[in-house]
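quick one, 138 residues, struct below
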Amino acid sequence: MNTHEQVKQWENGEGVALFQGLGLAEDAEILDYGCGFGHYTFAASRALNGRGTVYAVDIIKECMKVVGKVSSEEHLNNIQVLMGNKDYTLNFEDRSLDMIMYYDILHGNGTHRFSLYEEAKRTLKPDGILSITTIKKS
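---
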């Protein structure tokens, strides 16, 4: 099995189970900020069984095209593809999101992370989940 097939298998299996295990409602509003090619977006979408909304946001247009194309081809109709803002603000209402994913975007020494933390504080529901991962440099 090649790497692409392994990633697809994760998106359809372990990734779905991961999101289902979080206890989110099927009508949850999830933000995947810095979604890249959408691997977590697709898993979250499937975990919601076509309900709720997964917002795939990135500032790289090529990534957004791929996420839009795959979403369409795989009939993942609860995904909304949105371009990110250069100032890292989120175009969401206060306390409107059930989960925010910041995966591999807080690296470096830029002040953007402070803007993202403030936006998460503003947009997450009181019982919402802020999920963060960073790239570990060897």
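The chain is about 35% helix and 25% strand.
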